[in-house]
Design goal:
Jelly Rolls, 7-stranded mixed β-sheet, alpha+beta
């Protein structure tokens, strides 16, 4: 009897294997105005470019911190992103400059209100639910 594998199964196996070889974000503890969270740190071009694309879910108090080498106006979109997100743009001191909601697969760019050094993505509504507003500070452990 001949063993066969479908084209789609083979494609999925190849994609899974490729995914295993990709760089991963470091996970660490942080806080937003003393509210503890777990973040993944995206601090390289590859990790920032990939972000939260292709993920189906994220823990309630988990997020991704995008760290850039310098402050500049930042823009984010939701290409290949399935999770509704809220994004907070941070200055050099970790102070939130602005917060915006983003919808899955939206190709419109959401920009920071001024030069931002970092951006923190959380599940949509997380900042509002926790009373986090511009002026609050993010601290990474």
């Amino acid at each position: 009897m001949k063993n066969t594998i479908s084209r789609e199964s083979l494609r999925n196996l190849i994609l899974e294997e490729m995914d295993r070889t990709l760089p991963r974000c470091q996970r660490t503890q942080a806080s937003v105005d003393s509210i503890p969270i777990i973040i993944e740190i995206a601090d390289s071009d590859f990790l920032r470019d990939r972000g939260l694309m292709f993920r189906q879910s994220m823990g309630e108090d988990e997020g991704m911190l995008f760290m850039f080498p310098e402050s500049d106006q930042r823009g984010f979109w939701m290409k290949n992103t399935y999770i509704p997100l809220s994004i907070a743009f941070l200055d050099d001191d970790g102070v939130i400059l602005s917060i915006a909601d983003m919808s899955p697969h939206d190709l419109n760019t959401t920009y920071s209100e001024g030069p931002a050094r970092c951006a923190l993505e959380m599940n949509q509504g997380w900042f509002n639910k926790n009373g986090i507003v511009p002026g609050c500070r993010v601290l990474v452990s």
